[in-house]
Amino acid sequence: MIKTVIKEIIKTIAICGTLLLAASAALAQEKQTEGAAKPMPMQHEHHGFMQEGMHHAVAKGVKLDPNFDMATHTITLRVGPMNLPAHTSHMKMPQPPDLIWTVPLDGWLLAYHPKLVDAGGNSVPGTVLHHVAFWNENRADFLCPNKEEHIFGAGSELTDWAEIPGYGYRVQKGEKIRIETMMYNPTATSYDKAYLEVAIPFQETSDTAAPRKNVYPAWMDVAACGNSGYDLPAGKSEKTGTVTVKYDGVLLGVGGHLHDYGKKIILQDVSRKETVATLDAKSDAEGHLESVPVKLFVQDGGYKFAEGDVLKISATYDNPTGKLLRDGAMGIAVGYFAASDDTKMAALRRSSKMPHDMAGMSHDH
């Protein structure tokens, strides 16, 4: 029995596993009529996950289409269509505006299963997804209250956030989930009318099944409570940051997110002078990131955090290109946190959304 539970949690905290970071979603590049004068592009600024002040032309026609399958208790959020020309960087690609999903139920979101498809339902490679991030505008992050709660993130790896038996992310009807997206296409193949689909199984509070224990996504970032993306210098480098735990509880498991040329992430509890996890990345011969491992603590009842514990996150890179890569790095340890006293977490709820200048505030400026 216990082996089955652990097996399921391994599958799911693979959530955290390469945990991707934040997100990606829709991109529709509107074709201009030949010979027509090009209007000045509208600008869109991403705040939540990438660095502040990153401006892009806005992609037109991208919409959010939520579909419900009550038979399977699954919501599928579909973002698109997106036109993705070959050999286009994320800085050159028009990006979709942030999209808002209004939660229609009281209950728990249990997992996140992302994929990319074309209009015919055929698979589109995850390579074109720079990132997608889901933010709860009505809740503050429990580690970084200047940010909205980051409940889901994925990148090119399209990491599957599987279910943790007995746990779920608590939502209330009417909450606003902001979907922040970024696409690019480094491949030689163009993709027209691509869609991002995220399938989310759920359990309602009115269901006869036993209530879930509430879990909180824990994003422990080398940028501390600032913006996650940073410039990657040539050669070997290390960036560190700290966050302070504000609630007693346990970390059920932890994985990590790096970009290409990333070597490892180390998470330490400085207050206890303990190394929580060392996560050595796996890359191909060219240094392109393939995976970051997952470390589980569920066998021991979780890794205990106490209010006031200072956590240190370190990300190591070795960039062989000989040049600085603008916005080329991230270093995030990601896990699921269960509070000892869940009633204290109610203080994180906001009656209205947080201002974006706070949600995306950088401590570096």
How would you describe what is shown here?
The protein has 365 residues and is mainly beta. The protein has 2 domains: 189 residues, Sandwich (Jelly Rolls), CATH 2.60.120; 134 residues, Jelly Rolls (Sandwich). Helices cover 5% and strands 45% of the residues. The chain is built from 3 helices and 26 strands. Strands 3, 4, 6, 7, 10, 12 and 13 form a 7-stranded mixed β-sheet that branches. The N terminus and C terminus are likely disordered.
Distance, first to last CA: 51 Å
Q: Architecture of the largest domain, according to CATH?
A: Sandwich
Strand coverage percent: over 45%
Biggest sheet, in brief? 7 strands, mixed
Along the chain, the helix and strand elements come as HHEEEEEEEEEEEEEEEEEEEEEEEEEEH
Helix and strand content put the structural class at mainly beta
Q: Show unreliable segments.
A: 1-53, 357-365
Number of strands: 26
CATH top level of the largest domain is Mainly Beta
Number of domains: 2
**Overall morphology:** globular
The CATH topology annotation of the largest domain reads as: Jelly Rolls
What does the radius of gyration come to?
20 Å
What do the pLDDT scores average to?
82
Helix content: under 10%
Total helical elements: 3
